[in-house]
Amino acid sequence: MATNSLSPWLNTWTATNTPATDAHLADLVNDVMFEFEITDLRMGFYDEYDATAELLGWLLTEVRDRVIDTRLDDPFLYEHLQATAQRSS
To answer: What is the dihedral of CA 21, 23, 24, 27, to 10 degrees?
Structure first.
């Protein structure tokens, strides 16, 4: 991860609200929601960056209204996000 955070990329995605970006967003959700991989999503060459909290928080708040995928409504995801936030504080 060259930026040590997904924020710059997610902020750009949030600000770019077009049918094409929403289609890519739907693809991302489909990829990371496969078997709830979003709950342990690691990125980087050595999987050194735990992207779960940042990406899940973004999906559940910033762009939730742009994705039609009922898997994002699962209460488990909100509980997992809260637990992750408590561990990091």
So the answer is: 160
Whether the predicted pLDDT of 22 surpasses 80:
yes
Going from the C-alpha of 16 to that of each of 10, 63, 65, 75, the distances in angstroms are: 10, 11, 14, 28
pLDDT at 85: 81
* Nearest one of 28, 17, 32, 33 to 66, comparing CA atoms: 17
For residue 1, give Cα distances in angstroms to 7, 44, 50. Answer: 11, 5, 10
The string of pLDDT tens digits covering residues 25-72 is 999 999 999 888 899 988 888 888 888 999 999 999 999 999 999 999
Contact of 51 with 7, CB cutoff 8 Å: no
Residues 6+ apart with CB under 8 A from 7: 54
User: Pick from 47, 61, 46, 57: which is nearest to 84 by CA?
Assistant: 57
